[in-house]
Design goal:
Elements: H1 6-23, H2 30-40, H3 58-70, H4 80-92, H5 95-106, E1 112-115, E2 131-135, E3 138-145, E4 156-162, E5 173-179, E6 185-190, E7 199-210, H6 221-236, H7 280-291, H8 297-321, H9 329-352, H10 366-373, H11 377-387, H12 398-409
Parallel strand pairs: 1-4
Antiparallel strand pairs: 2-3, 3-7, 4-5, 6-7
Helix pairs in contact: 1-3, 4-5, 4-6, 6-9, 7-8, 7-9, 8-9, 9-11, 9-12
Length: 431
Amino acid sequence: MTDTTTAPATDLLTELKAWLADNWDPDLTVGQWWERLGSSGWAAPTWPVEWYGKGVTRAEAVAVARAIHEAGALGAPGGLGLLLAGPTIATHGSEEQKQRYLRDIVTGQRAWCQLFSEPGAGSDLAGLGARAERDGDEWIVNGQKVWTSGGHVADLGMLLVRTDVDVPKHQGISYFAFDMHQPGVEVRPLREMTGRALFNEVFLTDARVATDACIGGPGAGWAVANTTLAFERLGLGAGGGSEGATAATPGSVAGDLERRAGDFVGDQQDRGERVANRPMEEVLIELARANGSIHDAVIRQDLARLHTRAEIGRFTTLRLKGGADIPGAGNLAKLAMSDILRLQRDLGLRILGTAGTLHAYAAADRAVVAKATGRPAGLAITEMALFSPAPSIYGGTDQVQRNILGERVLGLPKEPSTDRVVAFRDLPRNG
């Protein structure tokens, strides 16, 4: 396969390297550096030029992020602001909303979380029950959300809530930019089997959100949410890369904005902590060579399978970059990523051998486990193994992705249902 965009990509990276030489300073605070990076267009290069971007393709943006990392500079603000909230607001928001929210996203001043899933509305997201009732120029919100990544450090949330129960469930949903720093918002961490607590449950009790924070208008929330989910699948899927993965956390809660930018990059982080910034394929090959398991023919074969699947994802991204119209590309990429994570899990644990039975469930245990095994990279592999079931669930389960492909791409008949014509209040619900 030939990539016909080499010259433009080369020009782009040459421009970036020159800009980094003039602007990167490890003694800047994270906030100061992200202000430079975001206002220049390099934090979100796929965004339009008029909204803090460069107007480049996703594949070019991945190359930009890689070049920033290789230059030893701090990458763009990570998290759901850059990945989901910003692109959604750029697509559906009013000009005033773009002015209000986008700059704080690309400069990392505000962190976002996703307030979508509920205990009774996961795979059937349109069945959500959190309510918002109009009160003048505000809405009063009550309900519960769950599996909220980064909710404990978020300034704002992408809130999906029911504003009309007298219409079918897909039509009565609205999408708000929601202030997490207000009375009536309680965030409780959920401990995962990795030992971390990245997810949260969020309880909303008479919380308030202004009418001018409704993205896309009242009742348009399902369409806006599908845009968010499409960006999520593309960002999480095989070959999607990352436009903003970095060790520093954006927003006012985590406290990283005032810290020295240089403290988050380079050799100041040990090799085990920096594994996340490298392709897992490279980590596994390096580990297999170190412990001799590279001579196992089955392990070599599975490493080749992993490489092949990663390359298929990369080539798909290049096809999209070249203008190819691939129906269901995001859903296919999401399914491919679930498959890749399962292969990485099984292969990584086989390469680690008995060391794969040890995992550091608390930060204080990491040095102990690394010393005991002599394999700092093993910490990332065991965490990845424990985390591996998650991608087949979040962002829409594998089963949901297959249903979407079957119905929307292949044109197969939908399952019989009345939930698109019956008012939400009249739908039967579990007790």
